[in-house]
Design a protein that fits this description.
Blueprint: E1 9-12, E2 18-25, E3 31-38, H1 40-43, E4 51-53, E5 57-60, E6 63-70, E7 83-85, E8 92-93, E9 106-108, E10 115-116, E11 129-132, E12 138-139, E13 152-155, E14 162-165, E15 168-171, E16 176-179, E17 186-189, E18 196-197, E19 208-213, E20 219-220, E21 233-236, E22 243-246, E23 249-252, E24 257-260, E25 267-270, E26 277-278, E27 290-293, E28 300-301, E29 312-316, E30 323-324, E31 337-340, E32 346-347, E33 360-363, E34 370-371, E35 385-388, H2 392-397, E36 407-411, E37 414-417, E38 420-421
Parallel strand pairs: 3-6, 4-7, 6-8, 7-9, 8-10, 10-12, 11-13, 16-18, 17-19, 18-20, 19-21, 24-26, 25-27, 26-28, 27-29, 28-30, 30-32, 31-33, 32-34, 33-35, 35-36
Antiparallel strand pairs: 1-2, 2-3, 5-6, 14-15, 15-16, 22-23, 23-24, 36-37, 37-38
Length: about 425
């Protein structure tokens, strides 16, 4: 018989906060994990608890339990909290534990903590610095993403897994660049010992203006430069055997894959004709005003390639492209029109979701391309959708396109709307 999970318990700490806990050991030593912090009673008045002291232990039904873990989402979105004191009994900080604590300015990680979960401090925008004790051996993905005020990450001497140099977080032997602080500014030259740039390593670093990738780098993780809105150039050492750069844009070595476009670069950009693939998230979160010309060599637009590219005003998709990836143009709020060439047979999930300025869609394929869930969510169902001559009935019957009520058949200068032909004048 499967044993049921222990029910959460709620206790009142010494400073009046309500703590929802989960008993993690009911035999000696007795331990609990903080599941959720609540200060609802302070919301009802002008008082607001800004300084949190997590207790080292709690009492429940006459027993004393040591607090050994801060659970997933324990302080999620507690925007009023400014400082947190973590007791030396705590060994683990869970996933999303302090996510969106937007006024958190200081947190002391005690020397008992061995694990910091994924997204643990994400979007703690006022957090200026953090010091990791020698005990920390595991840091989850995106733990400090969106910490735009963070100028330095420090690591205590003696840590066997991590080290910091000039405020940047690396693994112990400095071969993996883990986290570049979101508030650090200017030009950065990656050390020559680095072989791997981790996923989201520079994500959201708005003050970063240029970065140089050394010849030693063999792997660059996904979204590594996403949201770097001040970044105008990514340079690669000419001796690098895996990557290259041209006009400040990052490519693989033979420039068949466009890997990353700097988020602060503006104007018309013509992708080189050597490129066959626009990589996942290559232009993601580019906020500068840009228009992009895609050459006929490109066959694939990757997942999230232009996601939240709020500065994108125009894009031309060539007839060589067969598939538009999931989330490819999601959140491109300045994109006003899109033409889908006849070569495209599939449009991915949420590919054009939240393109709020979209005022027309032109489809060139006589057979309706398949659409993933929510491909055009947020677009008006009455916006004009132009389809090739003789294909209106097919589109009207298509489960992917029948929701649009203003479809028009286009043949040269003639339009047929819902089967009614408009004569040429």
């Amino acid at each position: 018989m499967k044993q049921s999970a222990p029910l959460p318990i709620t206790v009142l700490a010494a400073d009046g906060q309500s703590l929802c806990c989960r008993i993690t050991s009911s035999t000696a030593p007795l331990t609990v994990e903080i599941k959720r912090y609540s200060y609802a009673k302070y919301r009802k008045s002008s008082r607001c608890l800004k300084h949190i002291a997590i207790p080292a232990s709690i009492c429940y039904e006459g027993q004393t339990y040591a607090v050994t873990a801060i659970g997933d989402r324990a302080f999620y979105s507690c925007a009023d909290i400014a400082t947190v004191s973590i007791p030396p009994s705590v060994t683990s900080i869970g996933d999303f534990a302090f996510w969106k604590c937007t006024n958190l300015t200081a947190v002391v990680v005690p020397p008992s903590v061995t694990r910091i979960g994924g997204f643990a401090f994400k979007n703690c925008r006022r957090l200026a610095s953090i010091t990791l004790p020698r005990s920390v051996g595991s840091i989850g993905e995106n733990a400090f993403e969106g910490c735009t005020g963070l100028t330095a990450t420090h690591v205590k001497a003696g840590n066997e897994h991590y080290r910091s140099l000039d405020g940047v977080l690396f693994n112990k032997d400095k071969t993996v660049l883990e986290v570049f602080p979101g508030g650090k500014t200017g030009v950065y030259r990656i050390p020559g010992s680095v072989t791997v740039i981790g996923e989201h390593a520079f994500s959201g670093c708005a003050g970063l203006t240029a970065v140089t990738v050394p010849r030693s780098v063999t792997s660059i993780g996904g979204n590594a430069f996403e949201g770097c809105t001040g970044l105008t150039a990514i340079h690669v050492n000419a001796g690098n055997e895996d990557y290259s750069s041209h006009d400040g844009v990052l490519f693989n070595k033979d420039q068949t894959i466009l890997v990353a476009f700097p988020g602060g670069k503006t104007g018309l950009y013509c992708i080189p004709e050597t490129v066959t693939i626009i990589d996942w998230w290559a232009f993601s979160k580019c906020t500068g005003s840009i228009s992009v010309r895609i050459p006929p060599s490109v066959t694939e637009i990757g997942v999230g390639a232009f996601q939240h590219c709020t500065g994108l005003t125009a894009v031309s998709i060539p007839p060589s492209v067969t598939e538009i990836g999931d989330y490819a143009f999601e959140g491109c709020t300045r994109l006003t029109a899109v033409t889908i060439p006849r070569s495209v047979t599939e449009i991915g999930e949420h590919a054009f979701q939240h393109c709020s300025a979209l005022c027309s869609i032109t489809l060139q394929a006589p057979y309706p391309p398949r659409c993933g869930n929510g491909a055009f969510d947020g677009a008006s169902k009455s916006l004009p959708v132009y389809v090739p001559g003789g294909s209106l009935a097919a589109y009207e019957k298509s489960k992917w396109w029948s929701g649009f009520i203003n479809m028009k058949e286009k043949t040269d200068d003639r339009l047929t709307k819902r089967g009614k032909k408009t004569p040429v004048r």
